[in-house]
Amino acid sequence: ADLRMLLKMYLEDEGFEVETAIDGRQAMTKLSAGLSPCLILLDMMMDGMNGQEFLEAFEKADPDRFASIPIIATSALETIPTAKVRAFLPKPVQLETLVETVQAHCGT
């Protein structure tokens, strides 16, 4: 929770609008309710619905609507074994790299 809020504050300080979710289930609920982000920063090792479970639910939920939303995965694991993510940021996430990645997908 603390890291999620720190990343949120950092990205907001950089000028981005940020919505957070405590796990994949809450993220899917927000997406189903109409949230349309320019990207999803996904922690693969969340409690509750983890990153892999989220990816599976995301892919099945509304492919036409969600296909254009890039997913950026983050994890302490070496790599993410899926082609469903657009980029991978290893933990600890370098803040400069995070901002560059968000800018590349969302603009400034």
Task: Please count the helical segments.
Answer: 5
How many β-strands, per DSSP?
3
Helix content: 40-55%
> What shape does the CA trace take?
globular
- Going by helix content, strand content and strand pairing, the class is alpha/beta
Overall pLDDT:
91
Give helix and strand order, one letter per element, not per position: HHEHHEEH
Strand count, sense and barrel status of the largest sheet are: 3 strands, parallel
Strand content: 5-15%
Query: What is the first-to-last residue Cα distance?
Result: 26 Å
Oligomer: single chain
Q: What are the segments in which pLDDT stays under 50 over at least 5 consecutive residues?
A: none
Characterization of this structure:
The chain has a three-stranded parallel beta sheet, covered by helices on one side. With 108 residues, it is α/β, with parallel strands linked by helices. It is built from five helices and three strands, in the order ααβααββα. The protein is globular and about 35 Å long.
